[in-house]
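The freezer alarm interrupted the setup, so I double-checked each line after restarting. Inputs confirmed:
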Amino acid sequence: NAGVTQTPKFQVLKTGQSMTLQCAQDMNHEYMSWYRQDPGMGLRLIHYSVGAGITDQGEVPNGYNVSRSTTEDFPLRLLSAAPSQTSVYFCASSLRGKLFFGSGTQLSVL
Amino acid sequence: DAKTTQPPSMDCAEGRAANLPCNHSTISGNEYVYWYRQIHSQGPQYIIHGLKNNETNEMASLIITEDRKSSTLILPHATLRDTAVYYCIVRGGWEAGGTSYGKLTFGQGTILTVHP
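Predicted 3D structure, all chains:
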């Protein structure tokens, strides 16, 4: 099993650009989530999904969209990137309360 | 979810036990205590979780006080590779069902530094 795979690992955007962070898991987990982590801070939940076709907002959802068309994939879309979205993004899937994280995407918005 | 309080940093000598405390005085009866750690730049890693009994696995032991208001994560023989930020999180277990069982709120955690 590859576990949770995130792409890309690094990305630089200009203000106003849009992009999609990809997340895929091969463990057949129903629950998936996106977190962002800013320097010196813990992780903050952006959006989560409890299964295909079901998503909900976390603590900091503004500026991000998600969809869950399959169990395996949970992409995170930045609609119009802003410098405040410069952060490290982690995707996770969950089984029985245990979260399994990807290796992260480091995003810089100039 | 119950709020947790952890010391911001701790040191430990290599080969000694590392005991990381966590206070969760507002924990409710159906809430579990979870521990994760994050090694620099990597995604957090699950360590252990428990409800009221002490738990042990290949990574660590979790001691929960009888009143469940605090817990201690024990790394029995710390190594340099255990240097990381350790997060104590309290929330309902997966058996609670609903849409929020997987939502974990990460605080600031404890920076554990293991010295040679």
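Quick read of the result. Chain B has a mean pLDDT of 89.
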